[in-house]
Amino acid sequence: MYVSRLVAFAATFSSTLAAVYQGFNYGAERPEGGFRQLSHFETEFKAARNLLNAPAGGFTSARLYTTIQGGTKDNTTSAIDAAFSTDTSLLLGIWCSAGTEVFQNELKALKTAISIHGDKLTKLVVGISVGSEDIYRTTDVAIVQNKESNPGAPPSVIVSYIKQVRDAIRGTALAETPVGHVDTWTVWTNSSNQAVIDACDWIGFDAYPYYEAGMSNSIENSKSLFNTAMQKTRDAVGGKPIWVTETGFPIKGKASDQAVPSPENAKSYWDQVGCPLFGKTNVWWFWLHGVGSPDFSIISDLQNTTAEFDISCSAASVSPTSGWLPRCADTNF
């Protein structure tokens, strides 16, 4: 009995490690205004899947910031139905930067999704992210320098929220779903946040060399900055799988110190940073389509799946130049 159970576990574990998820980030709000509805999610998921000249594996996964449908108190997001209809895997998000009441609404939306979809969620949901950059939002850099108005949440609250999510999924179709937290790389390298690391199955890594003002952040140095941030994070998290949950470079907008937005520089960043990751670790790029400044869009029109620059990775470097290399452990938990 023990041997057969061990063999079954090994087979499942190998299958899990073989899966690498690639996709984009999607909020509840539309870039043009209003909230994303089922049709909007379906259109965007299909556009991502059908991107012309996409690198191997394509973009068939979506990271959500919230499980609540935009414009409602606690209804489950229509992105789940869109994911089923477009065969898109999901990294579910639980919004944690708006206080306890909103978090409880997130839990209700999650429980409703489980009640409605049951075992069908098992293959759809690749992970649950409890929060997104919540600890960063409590820092002086966020509040003073970047004028962050969202209250965020301290480490102790995030740990509590992670426990509550685990309690909510225990004994359900999502019981074995890996649970983690997404934050900026500087949060993970701060030892005061160790309790959050300990509470996570995986680490959500956000890094933008574009925003690293004062760090010689020209496009020529972007790869080195990214890899240094990744290596420092890896050193801090004790072997836990690292998923790249946000990164990208804008095609237009204002310069951030030495980082100058342009399609050419966005392509350079894609080739230097994205291409060595694709197919090797889980990546959710920021993002497919949006508006505003800076503009990180890959495509400017959802009806035209030709990217703003060559995304084929045909001319890209195949491995990072600094000490960090993707590991099998970073593909999934």
From TrEMBL:
Residues 1-18 form the signal peptide. Its EC number is 3.2.1.39. It is an enzyme of class 3 (hydrolase). The keyword Hydrolase applies. It is found in: Cell envelope. It catalyses: Hydrolysis of (1->3)-beta-D-glucosidic linkages in (1->3)-beta-D-glucans. InterPro entries: Beta-glucan_modifiers, GH. GO terms for cellular component: cell surface; extracellular region; fungal-type cell wall. One of its GO terms (molecular function) is glucan endo-1,3-beta-D-glucosidase activity. SUPFAM superfamilies: (Trans)glycosidases (SSF51445). Keywords: Hydrolase, Signal. One of its GO terms (biological process) is cell wall organization. Belongs to the glycosyl hydrolase 17 family. This is glucan endo-1,3-beta-D-glucosidase.
